[in-house]
Design brief:
This protein is mainly beta. The protein is built from one helix and 13 strands; from the N terminus they run αβββββββββββββ.
Length: 171
């Protein structure tokens, strides 16, 4: 059986978690809570939809372009959240990104925090099958679709995210 917790995967997962927490906890109260913005997916067949806090944050980290798409129940919530993170050597644009490795890390990662606080990440899955498609990227919003298989950080249980979609305010 393959070890899911290799040092490279653990470091990558920690970087993604820290990135998400830092950026979501540093936003001003005027962030997107417009009902037109959302992140949703079926988690093992059950629809989860977040509209309380949604945002797309883009940055350039050491030559890699990163787009972090977040949907949470609220800005301060540590549960009830969906994240789709794209890392690429080129600027993020309208196209499909997968879990292929680029510059030493997966190009696309999906994370899900359920209502009990369990944290699932495709970075831990042996066959994540991540697909994140950016269908529109403007000066004000980002929209698209996503899917992938995620694994719980603690127990190793799996949640498959299907029919994911988003329209989030671009920061």
């Amino acid at each position: 059986m393959q070890n899911l917790f290799t040092p490279k995967r653990v470091a990558l997962l920690l970087a993604i978690l820290i990135f998400g927490v830092l950026f979501s906890s540093c936003k001003k109260g005027s962030s997107s809570n417009d009902s037109a913005y959302f992140v949703q997916a079926n988690a093992n067949g059950t629809l989860v939809k977040y509209t309380g806090y949604t945002i797309a944050i883009s940055t350039n980290l050491s030559g890699s372009y990163v787009l972090d798409i977040q949907g949470q129940e609220s800005l301060t919530s540590s549960t009830d959240a969906l994240f789709a993170v794209i890392t690429d050597a080129s600027p993020i644009t309208t196209k499909t990104y997968t879990d292929v490795f680029v510059n030493g890390s997966p190009q696309g990662i999906v994370n899900y925090y359920d209502h009990t606080g369990k944290q699932f990440s495709s970075a831990l899955a042996t066959t994540p099958a991540v697909t994140i498609t950016i269908t529109a990227i403007t000066s004000t919003y980002v929209s698209g679709t996503f899917s992938g298989s995620t694994v719980d950080i603690s127990s190793g249980s799996t949640v498959v995210l299907t029919n994911g979609s988003f329209k989030v305010k671009k920061q």
